[in-house]
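Exercise 4. Each item below gives a protein and its sequence. For each, produce the structure-token representation.

Item: N-acetyltransferase domain-containing protein (Arthrobotrys flagrans).
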Amino acid sequence: MVSTQEDLKNRYWRKDQFLVSTDPSLFPIKRVIEVFDSRDFYWAKPVPVEAMEEMLRSSLSFGVYEQPVPENSTDSTIEPKFIGIARLITDYVTFSYLTDVWIDPAYQGKGLGSWLIRCVQEATDQMPYLRRTILFTADWERSVPFYEKLMGMNVVETPRGGGLAFMEVKGKGHPCYGRDGYDYDV
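Answer:
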């Protein structure tokens, strides 16, 4: 079955008191802008509210939230706390670009980043004609091994003198999907 854009934009995953959701209406826009304006989000600059709303709606955006629910509580009105994000810029059919992956430093080391990327991978696995997912990272020491391990990504190009690593993983729609080795000409 082919997942539609609407199917993918209404996904939820739970792990203990944490939630990952692709529902763009859950993002606290002003808080997301604060994150984009922080030192921890060094690769981007904040954008105005309207642009941020459009950016999150136009992408397959994954929000990570803490939503503690007291034991034996039926109160479902507790507001979730925004603690992470990942975005797939995609046509929902053949291509996706992973960007803006961030977990609040206070929550790092709890496996939430790995879980977030597994949720992203689950969504891309539902795109049967996806040719590839790409990303760029400047963090050769941590990010490259992280994406190699979790998503099976490969560094496609190594720039002279360092710089950004260009990584990709082939999807089910790629002519070389499932083959051993990598053919750069395809």
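Check: Residues 182-186 have pLDDT under 50 and may be disordered.
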